[in-house]
TrEMBL record:
Keywords: Plasmid. This is TIGR03032 family protein. It comes from the Bacteria. The lineage of its organism: Bacteria, Pseudomonadati, Pseudomonadota, Alphaproteobacteria, Sphingomonadales. Residues 22-336 form the Conserved hypothetical protein CHP03032 domain. It comes from Novosphingobium resinovorum.
Amino acid sequence: MAHAENPGATPPKVEFIVSPGLPEWLQRHSISFGFTSYQTGQLFLVGLMPDGSISLNQQNYSQAMGLCWDRGSLYLASKFQIWRLENMLRPGQVGNDRFDAVFIPRSAHTTGDLDVHELAIDSAGQVVFANTSFSCLATLDPVHSFRALWRPDFISELAPGDRCHLNGIAMLDGAPAYVTTIAGTDEPGQWRKHRVDGGLLIDVRTGNIVAEGFSMPHSPRTVGDMVYLLDSGRGYIVEVDPIKGTSKDLAFVPGFMRGLEIYAGLAFVTVSKPRYGTFAGLPLDAELHARGLAAWCGVMIIDLSTGGLVEWFRLEGDITELFDVTALPSIAAPMSLGVGSEELLTSITFN
């Protein structure tokens, strides 16, 4: 039996189906995970109940996109704010008789609508995010909406308009190392004309383009000397050698990918049903047709060494598009409190 909880506002209708082995897999690896949907504006946390059933906790965060777990804190980008959520439980405590982590929103930095796609935490504990609207990497500023850290050489000015659709950050040694853009364009919205093969992987440290020709790439991640990313318009997880500038396909995923978390050699990937009004003409459409597959919405866990599907979590109902995903190691059953919920008003803790 599956459990779904959402104190507060009435959520969209959601049903989920999981792979038969997912409950045992979560227990064996002592892990849970979270993901976001900007389509419905929600944070989802997936874990395992004491009775062995899957738990799905959902809370409302307007246009929820970037999601990051770092040093015990959960960071979330919403439409015009970046949130920091903390586990309010002390060691050994349990929330609602079954949750071993209860994430409560402790701070929100108001940025305005920057279309923040991804965020990460650097070695100094500073939030770094993909400021997609302004085509740059940025961090929080105590007075202003943001402080720019870096922008591609082909972006001529710091201005709104989403010129190249800079959407993903790869960290290395606690600092930004690579970004993905859908094109190398410098005019607002012009990246849409280059969705099929205009995608770039750029080295932040040198400004060099290390690999190109991707279709709507997202979510670069570093593992050792390699960079992994989602070649979303083709439907493939790709491994890039940034020294040689070469890439190879690792696995095909049946849907439009946006979020990637790599943990212990496994890729957690969010997959969505394509909006054919927006994604028509991408190679993904032809690939799905050739394979006789229909796109679906959910999270897939893929073994990067083999490209094989390990476990999966599938959503049905009102939600057809997901965004980011993060693994939550050493947490069995997480839940969160929503902004404005009655539980939030009465959940008071002190040191």
